[in-house]
Protein 1
Amino acid sequence: MEIKKKTEKEEVPVKDFTTCDATAQMITKGRREGVETAFDRAANMKACPIGADSACCKHCFMGPCRLNSKDPYGKVGVCGATIDTIMARNFARAIASGGAAHTDHGMGMVDLFREVVNGKIKDYEIKDVQKLEAVAQSIGIETEGRSVKEIATDLYKELERTYTQVEGEIPFAKRVPPKTLENWRKHGIVPRGAMREIMEMMHRTHMGVDQDYANITKQCSRTALADGWGGSMVATEISDILFGTPSPISIEVNMGVLKEDHVNIIIHGHEPNMFESMIASVHERTLIEAAKAAGAKGINLAGMCCSGAEVLVRHGIPHAGNFMSTEAVLITGAVDAMAVDVQCIKQGLVKVAECYNTPLITTNPRCRIEGATHVEFNDHDPKACTDEIVIKAITRFKNRKAKIEIPKNVNVGVHGFSHEYINYMLGGTFRGSYTPLNDNIINGRIRGVAGVVGCTNPRVKQDWVHVELVKELIKNDVLVLQTGCSQIALAKAGLTTPEAAHLAGPGLKEVCETVGMPPVLGIGSCVDNSRILIAASEMVRTGGLGDSIADLPVAGCAPEYMSEKAICIGQYFVASGVYTVFGVTFPIVEGTKFHKHLFEELETMGFGKWGFAVDPHEIARLMINHIDKKRKALGLDKGRERVLMDMQDRRAIDAA
Ligand code: SF4
Ligand code: MSK
């Protein structure tokens, strides 16, 4: 449901902004108190139609040039660039930027890992030796009879190539199913190091270089794969080795996790190291005593966005909400400090935090925000930063002036389904395997698997598309894997519990009840989309579902995406062989050659392809049709019918 622009006189009703009751309550409180959020700004600022279609270019100073998306071939830029070149270059730069964000995060994890292995950092340690050995073995590092330090040393040296390698293939290319890898080699898109790929992407999209949309798309795929099978996958694997591999854990979600009588600290961003240190700080006896001396019952730590998604799957730390709730949570007046690191941190937080006298604390030198307090985080002395944040929060608690109103909403969910746990859950300790999953797909109890991931975006009603889409998928026996802000939307809707199995179709319900799992599996943060790639590879390796990822009855979707990282994730799924549907808007003009290339031709080249729809039921239809197409190609199409919506379902949509 698209949010309409408000006129001078009318204010957009809060119920049009979000289906999250807690967020709605806080937007209403904010309006009473004269506090504006991104929801209001989005309603007041119409998206630029030329930019939305990617029909403008500012890659040189003969421009900027604007083409007419209604008549895309009627004009070219001053240099002669066509609409296809302009759209492809813009798309490519979004991928370069999104991929850079993930790979810089991943490189930071390798830096930390190296320092831990070499004994230069003592505050972190290798927590999961089994995972260390498994990752090392997956790329051919000998583990038999060797010490943890020897294996870890070889591993960090090898994984550094993910970023710096000038020629050849990145280490995790070894994990790609052979037929998928063969197709990448055929098309010349097996990634080298991310630095090389991103550099080449920026070069090729400079004015007067690559002006062939299909050739630009190849580098889009290569750069995106350097993220999915490179930077992001390394970030996930190293984080598991250092902080522990997730396994299912019951967690509380939504703003009701804040406690009026506690010092409340929110961590928001993406990198786990600061959050891990914060967990240690809030358990520091002296700091707990200081909080009590200030009149608090204790210190209450909660996460938001992907920081929260990553840490909840490892430690069960409560989660206060997804991307579009980060300003709203400050309006509670109960947040005594919000500490942020990198990515998805709205500059608008500064103003809202100021209104409630909440310290907004930046911690990463890459992300300082005018008006925020900066307390630099350093892996070599992490607690210096996180202890100081706790002290600032205690001080704010002592001097609380803001009117406090904490929504009562708290939902409980089970999250933390890492690839390793899915293996164990389905196959058991001694014969951990994907065979039961494949068998259930082959026998039709599970129709297919969908990844529903990504952000929330104020251009659509918060959480609504995520929740409706996932409900429709599970009703049709599609098992859903989730990361990032999307899984928080579903957790708030109560769908990440085993009890939610009653909402699934009969086949999926039976599997969920037998195993005791939810029909919607939350697996972590944005970089943890790499876990979905590994799960897909494992399904291919297990057998019976084709020879490449492109053969699998799977589909992906980011129905409320907003970030360039999402475009990069979408492209690495497409290049890996997955049909990937995006919602909200798609920055390519329909009816152009570049559109046809992304939405049709890539599939004929052995990849996945892009899809687009705004309505969740239409998205579900596209994904289910694709899953059925793949089932048919595998000869698994017998006896499966899509559940048609009845009148009651229709009325519910109309009323929404
Ligand atoms: Fe215009 Fe070409 Fe310059 Fe882009 S590169 S701004 S299309 S002249
Ligand atoms: S935090 S990229 S809003 S998922 Fe990863 Fe959420 Fe999207 Fe940021």
Protein 2
Amino acid sequence: MPVNPRRVHTLRAAPDGGGPVLYWMSREQRASDNWGLLYARELAGAARPLVAAFCLAPAFAGAALRQYDFMLRGLEQTARTLAGRGIPLVLLHGDPGREVPRLAARLRAGVVVTDFDPLRAKRDWQARAAQALDAPLLEVDGHNVVPCRIASYKKEYAARTIRPRIHKLLPEFLEEFPPLTPQQAPAPELPAPDWAGARRTLRADPGVPPVATPPGEAAARAALGAFTADTLARYAAQRNDPNAGATSGLSPYLHFGQLAPQRAALDVAATGSGENQAAFLEELVVRRELADNFCLHSPDYDTLDAAPDWARRTLDEHRADPRPYLYSPEAFEAAATHDPLWNAAQNQMRASGAMHGYLRMYWAKKILEWSPTPESALATAIALNDRHQLDGRDPNGYTGILWSVAGLHDRPWGRRPVTGTIRAMTDSGCRRKFDVTAYIRRWGG
Ligand code: FAD
Ligand code: FO1
């Protein structure tokens, strides 16, 4: 079954020279359920060699040892799975915008296929690669069930505006994946990945150590299986309770592309069509694809310029309001505020590389209240989220933080000091929702 051509977007048009097909793996770091890899395999057919490559950037958006360790251990597993299909994975390191065209030239690649990714750094890598390549550069959206460029051609205002567009297109795109057939043409002689050597090129802060979450495609599928079998039945009712363990925990696997969101959607949809499935698919498909839509159409996605006008106005109107508490980024990082609940959430993130979604909203909104300016609040929230969270450095993060701090995809609420009409969350509001004392006892506040 051919890959739907509407998942493919041309970044550089040029005649296909007929040489080997190069798949530049970046966002989708998996062998199965990977539309970019499947499309490259389709182009290779029976006669052309297919080569995969991953370029390790020495630094990426504040990623620390925690995130690089998780990613590289997952990539090692993916490389072994690909080798089992006769597809070599070349591990490059340095500037992807330069290293990938160099490999393409060495291989005399006839065409290069890579993953859709709306983040600025990725689009810069792709733009510079496109300039240096002779071969065509094709982008495949392997992250969204409905390709981001197809779901909408503009910045959507809210979930309610993108939802109907996505639901209308699900019958076309929420399809089963074809298997990845083994490579038929003889693969060129290529160096085996030097994982230890690549790790030595990293400039990743060892101060944020690896976490226990098991990385890789197999662990991701096991987590999905455990979710659909045990937790999904509680999802609608308990997903906002940080003590209930009622969410999937899939975000690190989705962020690093070790699991296809479409696989999660297919497996959850296969269990039925009740309120639990609907609630999960709303988050996994509508909310997540809204985040990619936002970052694709708002390249300034990590600044207040990308916030809605009403929100920027209200934050400006309240700039001079006295802050009830003021903390430096260092104090926030050290969980040294007056609020035991906020401190416990910060502790959960530092210790485990994760924070429950409901508390992420509270966590970011309090940073807005207790920072000297909205700009510094945004910078602090992004820096801490990208430094400690396994799933950070993701369109979901920039979108979630802009939603919390600057009303993105939301509407005005009752006016308050400092935060104006930005939706507020309070400790007492949390106490009405879940057992705050139990959560503080567990994570320490
Ligand atoms: P589940 O509830 O099991 O949801 C399944 C999947 O749906 C998630 O893995 C995620 O891919 C998607 N999803 C769920 N909620 C959202 C949402 N609100 N927006 C977009 N997609 C969603 N998510 C990240 O992946 N990386 C981040 O850095 C990140 N930072 C956030 C910061 C703030 C301030 C806020 C409010 C939210 C942030 N989110 C982020 C979104 C959401 O909180 C997480 O995706 C979710 O908590 C991950 O846990 P889970 O996989 O158990 O979620
Ligand atoms: N993508 C790459 O192609 N090369 C990298 O070296 C790389 C490092 C990296 C580190 C942390 C992290 O969270 C993501 C990283 N990514 C890298 C990007 C990742 O593959 C995702 O594409 C984006 O982060 C999400 O859009």
Protein 3
Amino acid sequence: MTLRLVVLPGDGIGPEVTRAAMEVLRAACAPEGIDVETTEHPIGGAALRATGSPLPDATLAACLSADAVFLGAVGDPAFDGEPRERKPETGLLGLRKALGVFANVRPAKAVKGLANAGPLKPEIAAGLDLVVFRELTGGLYFGEPRSLDLAAGRAVNTLPYTREEVERIAELAFRAAEGRRGLVTSVDKANVLETSVLWRRVVEEVAKRHPAVRLEHQYVDSCAMALVLTPSRFDVLLTENLFGDILSDLAGALVGSLGLLASASLGKGPGLFEPVHGSAPTLAGKDVANPIGAILSAAMLLCDGCGLPRPAAAIEAAVEKVLDAGLRTVDFATEGITPVGCSAFATAVAAVLEAEGNAVAELA
Ligand code: IPM
Ligand code: MN
């Protein structure tokens, strides 16, 4: 079997974490006899510099015909203040829309041995195990009308949702809850926003089809507070695009580093897999980024994007082994521990996978 992947390294630390993730993905696929063919394309700031567009036609065409797409990160301060069509982020948003990846799945789980590293008391952090289902192709990010008139001092964004848009993401969130602890927390602002009133109505209808799942509604402000106070009570968080963007960074802080979080963006066609973190321009080129979010996104690519749960589970287990052995990137380095770089961490994970692959080959 051959996997045809499109790889979009992007900006900042994107290329470093992408290299790390692809090294690990190949090491996980080799013992399974899976060939991995990758083609790289520019997106974001890198694409703006090379072609004048943040999402060149050739990049988009390649993504649309791939088995799955892996993306590092986009964002480059050199384009701050530029109009929307010349922003790196516009490339990513255009890609999400064109791929139709409406469901952004972002798991956040306390990592054994790292629970002390975050801002929470260890006993509060320890039980954290949630997944954010973020609607990704609608809401404030894409709503029309939108406008910016700096001279007139007026700007407009719009938060629209349709029944169909809410229903399809809610359905996936409930199915996920059925395989987890059976709780969906739908996050909205229904005390203020009409969109949220519709959101609630549709989510309640979907809930009726899933009687084994308990549904609760929570306002987004109160949810942000509860996530810090009692993170372990949450299971599946279901929410609109911008709320999900904000809450998933909060979840990153709760597990100790945004660098740990992975994501899958799913629709009907090829999925898009990217770490939750951004391009972190100040860290770029120094080999200090934490590649775990990118590596676990590669695992999600195999499992959720290509139907290959076995090499995906092998990657997760190998990351855990390397952490158990005490390797830490700089975001988790404590006194007395010399941190390893992004590339060294990835090579250690790949080495674990290769050693296991060899052991299996010897048995065969
Ligand atoms: C994310 C990022 C993106 C978003 C940016 C880069 C457009 O913050 O994936 O969370 O806001 O969705
Ligand atoms: Mn974000």
